[in-house]
Amino acid sequence: MKKQVCSTVFPLLCILLFLSAEAQTCRPSGRIQGENPPPGQCNTENDSDCCKDGKWYTTYKCSPPVSSQTKATLTLNSFEPGGDGGAPSECDNQYHSDDDPVVALSTGWFNHRERCLKYINIHGNGKSVRAKVVDECDSTMGCDSDHDYQPPCRNNIVDASKAVWKALGVPENKGEMDIYWSDTD
């Protein structure tokens, strides 16, 4: 009897663990094909990439699970008019000074505007900074005028203003950096 219970329970436990791990996995949701932007239409400030004709770009509707120490990649973005961020911020339809600690989160973490105008803590380079979420770094679309002819964001991006980089004591020309972030209380 004991052997029969073990042989029945163990496979069920394995299936439940597999499904639980599977539910926390963020898989690509699709791909879009890039086109070369019209002349002068892709802002390469802060080393932003422009879409390339014929190149396929992965899209995501999700991001990795959020925890008290969510691992992410920090990138540099301008939230000012004429900056590489493009249009006004999604949360308040405003531009923001690059001297203010503001960020855009990948689509899954942006969570249908749930984090709009809320603060997150960012930890990197042995320092921390509190930043306001003002925009989405779109992981579902790109390579069009609405996205400044830039590729879709990866699903693990915290796109930050110069003020965030400065607070972390990191030169702006570093490109990108591994960080951890969390929601504030």
From TrEMBL:
Pfam families: KWL1. Keywords: Secreted, Signal. The lineage of its organism: Eukaryota, Viridiplantae, Streptophyta, Embryophyta, Tracheophyta. It is found in: Secreted. Its main location: secreted. SUPFAM superfamilies: Barwin-like endoglucanases. This is Ripening-related protein 1. Belongs to the kiwellin family. The keyword Acetylation does not apply. The keyword Signal applies. InterPro entries: Kiwellin-like (IPR039271), RlpA-like_sf (IPR036908). Residues 1-23 form the signal peptide. PANTHER family: RIPENING-RELATED PROTEIN 1, RIPENING-RELATED PROTEIN 2-RELATED.
